[in-house]
Amino acid sequence: MLGKVKIKIAVVAIISALVTLMGQATLAYYSTVGKATNVVTSGSIQFIIHEMTDQGTEFPEEGVYIVPGDVVSKKVSIENICEHPFYLRVKMVYGIESTELSSDECFKLNINEQDWVLHDGWYYYNGIVEPGITTPDVFSHVEIVGSKVDNSYLGKTLTLTVKAQAVQSENNPISDGNTYTASGWPAE
């Protein structure tokens, strides 16, 4: 009887070993370990800010001489010079010498509100700027507000600086057609 018990124990041990080996073989059959290296290359966004006059010449880098009440021709548009479409926003920064001014202190711009939308101090182009395309003008004239410019401005240099930022439009959906809802706009 002791021999039969030993045989039963041996059979159970062999069956257990076979079941364990088959389970490991099955596990090995259904799972595997591997390694993959993925390379993600982001495109670069590049643009040029064009500042032109009504005569089609570049706005002078050194500026122009003005007196209160003058209306100066200055057409500002942005050209996409890269291979990727993007959303675009611009901001005008006003100043005197090295001090920043608020927009209503000296300048009045005729903003193209058909193509540009004001949101949080930035003007957003209401479309996608495709490669090789130049936007419609953000504005085309700057008025020096005579009632705001008094003798304290005499001999000073007034500045109007245009800043622009762009984010990719590819795989970057917007809500309700508002480009300011795109992801990735830099914080100020």
How would you describe what is shown here?
The structure is a single chain. The chain folds into two domains: 1-34; 47-181, Immunoglobulin-like (Sandwich), CATH 2.60.40. The model is unreliable at 27-31 (pLDDT under 50). 15% of the residues lie in helices and 32% in strands. By secondary structure, it is of the alpha+beta class. The longest helix is centred in the N-terminal third of the chain and has 29 residues, at 2-30.
Question: Could you give a quick summary of the protein structure above?
Answer:
This protein is α+β, with helices and mostly antiparallel strands and 188 residues long. It is 15% helix and 32% strand.
Features:
9 strands; 2 domains; alpha+beta; Immunoglobulin-like; four-stranded antiparallel beta sheet; 188 residues
Global geometry = rod-shaped
Can you tell me the CATH class of the largest domain?
Mainly Beta
**Radius of gyration (Å):** 34 Å
**Relative strand content:** 25-35%
CATH fold group of the largest domain = Immunoglobulin-like
Quaternary structure classification: single chain
SSE arrangement, N to C: HEEEEEEEEE
The CATH architecture assignment of the largest domain turns out to be Sandwich
Number of helices: 1
**Strand pairing plus helix content: what structural class?**
alpha+beta
Mean pLDDT: 82
Indicate the low-confidence ranges by residue numbers.
27-31
For the record, the count of structural domains works out to: 2
Termini distance?
A: 89 Å
Largest sheet: 5 strands, antiparallel
Helix fraction, binned, reads 10-25%
Number of strands: 9
